[in-house]
Give the backbone structure.
Amino acid sequence: MIEFKNVSKVYADGTQAIKDFSLQVKRGEILTLIGPSGCGKTTTMKMINRLIEPSSGAIYIDDKNIKDYNIHELRWNIGYVLQQIALFPHMTIEENISIVPEMKKWGKKKLSSRIDELLEMVGLEPSIYKKRMPSELSGGQQQRIGVIRALAADPDIILMDEPFSALDPLSREQLQMDIRKLQQEIKKTIVFVTHDMDEALKLGDRICVMKEGEIVRLDAPDRLVMQPGSEFVEEFIGNRKSPWQTSVGNISSTDKQYIISSSDFADSSNLQPGTFIMTDENGIYQHMLINGKAVHGPVIDSAMSLYESAELIKDSSQTIFPVVENQKLVSVLTYRDMMEFLLNQANMENGVVRP
Ligand code: ADP
Ligand code: MG
């Protein structure tokens, strides 16, 4: 729905901030722009609501060149949240939120119920906060008002330029959760600028990594982490690893219940129903034994990552798999172990302490 086509921006002093930039932001997605200071993130954002004009190329919203929109309508339809908390200090919270809806000539009743709804959405009791002045609120609360003010007139697009970077870590995390929760309800198209990879990964449906006015990489968070593709992106990601990159040896178990050695199994008359892994007397993997039948299914190498293993086994109907090192069976990977491992990792990431 927002499309940049070969956009460049050269400032009056000759600084080339954006170079031949092409990008599509899909309707209803959160796209995070990330990159070092000076790489052109703010310039990119400000071109969307025409605070800055491109030097060449064009930007489209819903296939219409933004130059062809009435500038007021364009801006009313784009909420904008800045890094600096920019509430008007002499207006109450209610008045601050009302600015754009009033310009759009909303009726009193509609406006009043909208304000209550927005304050409730971010956990601020309307009867308490409506009449307060910005200075009576904490930094985190003020920025929360900044966010809902941008949403007030129900714009289709929201631009957020490092909106939480001035906040303490706790307020920041709270607001990131607010945004995720809000987005599930409102499904806006959001462009979110940050220089913090954690924030980008947490919030973005897709992440656009920028460097010196150009796109280095545009991809979903998990793909970016698993396959950075360049040193620049890798450095940005830091040493953060996805659980999917864990070596399968850390997840598989050495539980013997699934293993049958040919030496234990001389007599085919005591075949058992169920799925087993068959080895020879030296522990070399032979084949699976499923309800008494030899089956040749996927074999996982112990050096593989969980991701590579999952790719390998995803089409198999088995739920347990042999893990080998030089053909020798070293452990067993089960769907149950994988599930438990991933769930634990997710819980750790979300700070859930398991009993
Ligand atoms: P970011 O938001 O990623 O830090 P900006 O978009 O603010 O980057 O800036 C990109 C480049 O353009 C930087 O080199 C910056 O110094 C330069 N720049 C930004 N605004 C202006 C301006 N008004 N005039 C000249 N150069 C500018
Ligand atoms: Mg900036």
Remarks:
- The radius of gyration is 27 Å.
- Residues 11, 13, 15, 17, 35, 37-43 surround adenosine-5'-diphosphate (ligand 1) (CB under 6 Å).
